[in-house]
Task: inverse folding
């Protein structure tokens, strides 16, 4: 981390009205002398913040980050890495006190600050952003509910955050986490909403950084865990399509490291879009094989052609807004994800990637999928190794 900036404490005069909206200490308003593209993000990123200490948990990084979506899967790793370098992390949450409890221990005393908010209420968003100089948006959801549409969660909320961050005037970095494959022509509504969110965020804040992670793997992931749970229950895995769709799964910690690396690069990543895929391109079948190896189960698949998978998934979508009670969230058969799986989702050739952030992503085989051992029948140490695996059907 770089040392102290001499520009700390310099203020441009044009933001006094913003300071009235968000009455903050002066230290949050430096670095806005040269607004680019009419935005209020500091052109030098966070490079001129005051830093103290050796860079560990009890140091001061100068970063005060509001992490929207911190209560989710990626959120815990982002918060942990921010806290580890001595940042203060404001954690907006909408659920119960339990939703953020695990984050509290990640930082020094008082460094993790949970704040109740309502994502539909601008004043409450302003309140959780008021003291921040960095905003990270991890809000997203891959299925719709009765209350929240894809568009609202994945697009409108991001747009609202960007508008408020722009108004704020003291936000030096805005990082928007989108999704690999986000495109206005995607067959998935989720990915179309993510594409719209990127456009809106960059429209409001051209210096924002957009991260597009591929499907994320890790202890709390929603792909290998769902598969392993299904296999444990039913002894087979439905393979949607014929299992040949190419994906590029990425270790969640690498994505969190990319967010932090972008924050620390003092502006080089501002206004850029990064595609974060793992080191290997796998078909869904190959990923499932990895899962079976780790849980030490004999792989049994049932191929579910796309039309049948869509037919299985459709009733929930049709009934979602029609029945007067909430429906279960889809795990294996999510219509929108089935639509997304009809095309390959890999990092494009000319995209900025982990390499441009100085990160070498982990291979999945090994530590990133080791958490699956908890699904082994009879305990983590039970079962044959992959090479010794024996087809149980061969022994009647
Ligand atoms: N997981 C993946 O494989 C993957 C892959 C590519 C991109 N992404 C994107 O990366 C980001 C983080 O992913 P993740 O896996 O950490 O997601 P996650 O575990 O589902 O967490 C999402 C976060 O968004 C919040 N959220 C969801 N719906 C909300 C709503 N209606 N109002 C307010 N907050 C809401 C959740 O808050 P609550 O805890 O209150 O629900 C949670 O904090 C998301 O934008 C996701 O789309 C994920």
Result:
């Amino acid at each position: 981390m770089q040392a102290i900036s001499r520009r700390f404490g310099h203020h441009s005069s044009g933001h006094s009205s913003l300071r009235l909206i968000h009455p903050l200490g002066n230290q949050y308003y430096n670095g806005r002398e040269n607004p680019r593209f009419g935005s209020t993000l500091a052109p030098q990123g966070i490079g001129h913040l005051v830093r103290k200490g050796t860079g560990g948990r009890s140091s001061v990084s100068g970063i005060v980050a509001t992490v929207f979506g911190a209560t989710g899967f990626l959120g815990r790793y982002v918060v942990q890495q921010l806290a580890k370098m001595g940042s203060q992390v404001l954690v907006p949450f909408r659920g119960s006190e339990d939703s953020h409890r695990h984050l509290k221990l990640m930082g020094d005393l008082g460094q993790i600050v949970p704040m109740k908010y309502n994502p539909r209420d601008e004043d409450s968003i302003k309140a959780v952003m008021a003291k921040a100089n960095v905003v990270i948006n991890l809000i997203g959801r891959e299925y719709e509910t009765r209350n929240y549409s894809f568009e609202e969660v994945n697009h409108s909320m991001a747009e609202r955050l960007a508008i408020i961050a722009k108004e704020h005037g003291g936000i030096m970095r805005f990082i928007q986490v989108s999704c690999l494959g986000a495109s206005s022509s995607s067959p998935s509504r989720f990915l179309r909403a993510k594409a719209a969110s990127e456009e809106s965020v960059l429209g409001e804040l051209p210096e924002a950084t957009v991260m597009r992670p591929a499907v994320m793997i890790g202890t709390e992931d929603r792909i290998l865990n769902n598969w392993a749970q299904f296999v444990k229950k039913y002894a087979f895995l439905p393979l949607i399509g014929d299992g040949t769709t190419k994906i590029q799964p990425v270790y969640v910690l690498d994505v969190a490291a990319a967010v932090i690396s972008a924050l620390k690069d003092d502006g080089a990543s501002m206004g850029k879009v990064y595609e974060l895929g793992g080191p290997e391109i796998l078909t869904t079948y190959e990923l499932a094989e990895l899962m079976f190896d780790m849980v030490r189960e004999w792989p049994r698949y049932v191929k579910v052609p796309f039309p049948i998978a869509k037919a299985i998934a459709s009733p929930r979508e049709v009934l979602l807004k029609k029945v007067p009670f909430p429906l279960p969230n889809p795990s294996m058969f999510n219509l929108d994800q089935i639509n997304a799986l009809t095309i390959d989702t890999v990092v494009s050739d000319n995209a900025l990637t982990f390499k441009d952030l100085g990160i070498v992503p982990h291979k999945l085989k090994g530590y990133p999928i080791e958490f699956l051992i908890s699904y082994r029948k009879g305990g983590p140490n039970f079962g044959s190794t992959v090479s010794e695996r024996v087809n149980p059907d061969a022994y009647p």
